[in-house]
């Protein structure tokens, strides 16, 4: 490490989430950086997630009273001050020595909900002890139902208020950049909830969703929906919500950007259950666009990892604060004082 890398983080220099990545990269091992930053195969979907947001233009209204902005929402019986959650990401201890404890502290300071990954490198009880904000749990189901039931009950007992069941990962994608660096967890870092190397549950089907419902006492969301037909099946299966996600382009390359997939899913779901979205959210305007096209809330993955790597808990809080402030700016400047005011009319349609 050179002296520049050892200087304490200066979060005051951070004005947006894009500034963060090089600062974080300088403090991460090559392996950790490649793990976080990379996508699958040729990374088309990674790029499309961003390009699709950038291509959407906004259609502002003026002379609207925006002196009282209200970003609150109610989701699965929980009151959220603003519609941005921390997406589940694995292995926080490779990003920062305090790992998931720092993430939980940072989330709490920003009053954000933290969705803990099944691949947490910190036991859930330790995270729960330091968390001052709401916790949800992301579940990778194994074929071992007794194990999965115990895990769900453990997460519930630790206060996790919802279960995000990841359904887009029967196998991992072709993660070439991870392969090139020979990604592996460093000695001494373990995943207490997934003691064995990931044995993906390739045999999961909709029947397992019925079983999950019979086991869980908290709302179940299916994470990784891109196809409106699957969104329909999710509604039929009686889950509480879905997360439109392409896993940040880390699994199947050349699937569309999530914001491009959202409108058809919104149309099919027709308000029957809440839709959340992740993938490429980096600006407050991205959050506004997702809400305009039918999302109730969004989740953020990579920027949280980079915030954690650069500044620990304070870095996580900073990422959330920046996005939240930018969302408020975007609302004021488009003349939308509440989330309910952010409807499709805020999207510029060139033929109108
Ligand atoms: C480093 C990293 C680790 C991830 N680990 C998980 C995981 O353990 N479980 C999961 O369901 N999704 C995982 N994801 C996907 C995120 O939950 C989320 O879908 C995605 O990161 C959102 O896109 P964004 O990173 O562009 O914001 C991971 C993503 C990243 C970048
Ligand atoms: C350990 C992995 C399965 C976590 C994950 O979902 C990811 O890296 O995208």
TrEMBL record:
PROSITE patterns for this protein: FMN_HYDROXY_ACID_DH_2
Which residues does FMN bind?
88-90, 117, 138, 166, 223, 245, 278-282
Cofactor requirement: FMN
- The reply on keyword ATP-binding is no
Any idea which residues are catalytic in this one? 247 (proton acceptor)
Question: What's in the keyword line of the UniProt record?
Answer: Flavoprotein, FMN, Oxidoreductase
Domain FMN hydroxy acid dehydrogenase: where?
Answer: 9-352
Q: Its Gene Ontology molecular function terms?
A: FMN binding; oxidoreductase activity
SUPFAM superfamilies named in the record: FMN-linked oxidoreductases
Residues reported in the UniProt entry to bind glyoxylate: 35, 140, 175, 247, 250
Record Pfam families: FMN_dh
Q: Which InterPro entries match?
A: Aldolase_TIM, Alpha-hydoxy_acid_DH_FMN, FMN-dep_DH, FMN_HAD
Family designation = Belongs to the FMN-dependent alpha-hydroxy acid dehydrogenase family.
The protein's name: Alpha-hydroxy-acid oxidizing protein
Give the species: Fibrella rubiginis
